[in-house]
Amino acid sequence: MSYRILITEPIVDSVIEKLEEHYEVVVGTRGQYSDEETLVQAIPEFDALLPMLSCPVTERVLRAGSRLKIVANHAVGYNNIDVEAARQEGVKVANTPGVLSESSADCAMALMLAVARKIVDAQQFLYDGKFDGWDPLAFLGMELNDKTLGIFGMGRIGTAVARRARAFGMHITYHNRSRVDEETEQKLEAEFIPELDTLVEQADVLSLNCPLTDETHHAIDAGMLERMPDHALLINTARGPVVDEAALAEALHNGTIGGAGLDVFEEEPEVHPDLLSAPNCVLTPHIASATHETRKAIGMLAANAIIGVLEGTPDEEIPNLIQD
Ligand code: DGY
Prior knowledge:
This protein is an alpha/beta fold. The protein has helices at 13-22, 36-42, 59-64, 83-89, 101-116, 119-127, 156-167, 182-188, 196-202, 222-227, 245-254, 273-276, 292-310; strands at 4-7, 24-27, 48-50, 70-72, 92-94, 148-152, 171-175, 190-192, 205-208, 233-236, 259-262, 281-283. The strands form two sheets. Strands 8-7-6-9-10-11-12 form a seven-stranded parallel beta sheet, with helices on both faces. Strands 2-1-3-4-5 form a five-stranded parallel beta sheet, sandwiched between helices.
């Protein structure tokens, strides 16, 4: 009997073709499986699931997957999967670490520069036909050189952001569950800040690069926003719920902080209406990993985990299985 794989919506063709070489593959339509009930109904027919980060792979879904052997998320973040329920059901879980660090860090820098230098507002001004010649006082922004970047979450992506920021002359501070190795700290001249409050108070730019967990949910709330200097910028390419979005919108409107660059939102695809009208905000639709190179690599890594598990490769030889 051939194994059946569900890819919840279209992804890069070469990844689908790779899985089709081995198995029967069903590809959903865009957004088809973003609700729990549709997944619960479909899953009994499949041996492997390759979901998007918007698919809720809940306990119900996992229990309904009577022949399910692996869920290989098309993302590094896997807060959409109930990993404990998967363990109980004997279903392996994989994510895609490593392959999207550079593209995600590029996106964090792009947002940082766009907000600091008011690029989007300036472009709109020009498109609106308002450009009447060089203006010594127009669109004055913040220079990144010599500013302090606070990175919350110094994993692969946070480290890649730090490398880029160093090239822009920034000082690196970071808060993480544990300290990074000495060599990395030295290379980046990065200072470990044991308390998140202190990191937030000292940063001119705060970049969120942590996973979404119970501990990081709303880690940046009204109180933390209050601690940020009033010129400081918040960059979030991690997960929306790390920030209390309503509190952030209020802080931006009140001038409590200087601006924000956000690629992720609390209730995607919804965006808090007060954010849409907030000043000094650059908002993008969760595109941090959206490069041709990265999206192919993400798909291939997920596909390889599926092939590995279905073909009986020992867990230790499948580098992206989640073991925690
Ligand atoms: C991920 O992989 O978790 C990213 O959010 C995708 O952009």
